[in-house]
Design brief:
This protein is α+β, with helices and mostly antiparallel strands. Helix content is 24%, strand content 13%. The chain has a three-stranded mixed β-sheet with strand order 1-3-4. The chain has a two-stranded antiparallel ribbon with strand order 2-5. A two-stranded antiparallel sheet has the order 6-9. It is elongated, with a radius of gyration of 20 Å. It starts with a strand and ends with a helix. Residues 1-27 have low confidence and may be disordered.
């Protein structure tokens, strides 16, 4: 039985209508419950003044397929927790380079028609944080291999990752300090390791 809970309308939400965008959406997909959460009651009706009632499951699908504007993605989690019975989910992560590979050119700029430009670093962080859809994780290695200089993690010229064998840096901006040594970002340390220095 659908549950209907009226929700007050924030001034910034005027309409909940799908947006048109290409199949690859690295910045606009969202769960209406927020990051690392999902709808627990897909049949519950989300009611917002001046809009048709919509089941939480349908609204969630619109968000996951990238068909909601970013302002709705930002506002809906504060409005859906109770009515949609939002619940935590485990995050699945991926490397944009594919299994066993890592980005070695984090400053490369990735452009996809209809989407904002983003760096290889940001895309990789999105993948590691579970913000990319499974289909995006499968598609991206073909698109970013040369641009992001994807390399096999254990490959090469006596190179290493500062994180250890089979691991990679995902927080490139963190600063590492060691007594009597200059402070370096994790990106700089990783780059030195990749170069075998």
């Amino acid at each position: 039985t659908p549950v209907s809970v009226p929700v007050p309308v924030p001034e910034s939400i005027t309409t909940l209508q799908p947006t048109s965008s290409p199949s690859l959406r690295t910045k606009t997909t969202c769960s209406i419950c927020g990051p690392s959460k999902q709808v627990g009651n897909a049949d519950a009706l989300f009611v917002i003044s001046g809009q048709p009632n919509i089941p939480c499951g349908e609204l969630e699908t619109l968000g996951l397929e990238g068909n909601l504007a970013s302002k709705e993605c930002n506002l809906l989690p504060s409005m859906t927790q109770e009515v949609c019975s939002c619940e935590s989910v485990s995050v699945l992560s991926c490397s944009i380079c594919g299994t066993g590979k890592a980005v070695t050119n984090p400053s490369g700029i990735f452009n996809f028609p209809g989407q904002p430009s983003t760096t290889c670093r940001q895309l990789e962080q999105d993948g590691q944080s579970g913000f990319l859809l499974g289909e995006e994780c499968q598609l991206l290695p073909k698109l970013v291999n040369a641009l992001c200089d994807c390399q096999t993690i254990s490959e090469a010229k006596k190179e290493c990752s500062v994180c250890g064998n089979g691991k990679q840096v995902t927080n490139f901006d963190a600063v590492f300090t060691f007594p009597a040594q200059p402070a370096l970002t994790c990106e700089e340390l990783e780059s030195l390791g990749k170069e075998g220095d």
